[in-house]
Design a protein that fits this description.
The chain is mostly helical. The protein contains 15 helices and no strands. The longest helix is centred in the last third of the chain and has 29 residues, at 203-231. The protein starts with a helix and ends with a helix.
Amino acid sequence: MGVLALLWGSGFLWIELALDNGLSPVLITVTRCALGALVLVGLCLSAGQRLPRDRATWGRLIVAAFFCNVLPFALFSVGQQSVDSGVAGVLNATTPLWSLLIGIAVGTERSIHPVRLGGLLLGFTGTLLIFAPWQQAGLASWGALAIVAAAASYAVAFAYMARKLTGRGAAPMALSASQLLTATGLSMLALPAGGVESADVQPVGVIAVVVLGIFGTGFTFALNYRLIADEGPTNAAAVGYLLPVVSITLGAIVLDEEVTVRIVAGMAIVLAGVGMTQWRKGAPKPAAGGARAATGAPVGDAVVASSKG
């Protein structure tokens, strides 16, 4: 979860740099999907894993790619054109709440203990405290609505992937590679609508989108599939609560931004909330074959999917 939060949480920085240096939202979406797919296909080949071959799985991957990649990637890029980074972070952190509601509605979520539910609410409270969106502009803008829609889209994808894709005999990394290949094809359909006319692209923008594609997309989704298979969709979405912590830390280190007492307190509350969502009552320690049971893949494959990320 920590590595996934670090890779995913830096995405807001790379998106903003790419937008500010000449790349359009559509081109950012296509490029990050394509680079992420190349990374994951390479990892699959090095691990001796095969991509799915049956039509049913690829049909499900189209749905997953749309809701987990194409739609949210585009919405975040569009939203960050008019929304402050703090507002974007707090709105993105609503994903676990959407995931909880959807999971209960469709029956994919495992038993919800009051401690876990309290952790979700506590995490959102800490995120609000960190970003104090009432002090910033853009909360009610169309860009903000786009980011809320992106967060909800992630939640839909997590529930769908847990129900239809994970635990069916395919290794998480192979599923991730297949999904990003599918997302690349889907996002390319939007290029004529505004992806090929990016004006005055700067080297910083190119570097940003390359980092976003390789690390913030490729390795991120390999870890994401593994987390959904092992912990369930709501716990996977709880990584969203760690993203504000990552963005605050990167801002302080890279941009020399001020870290106040309010922000430190919010980070502590966020971490406490994430810990509560991981609570298990009398959960037994996983057996040696636990990885096979969770992912449907050999234990070695599951370890490769995690360690490679």
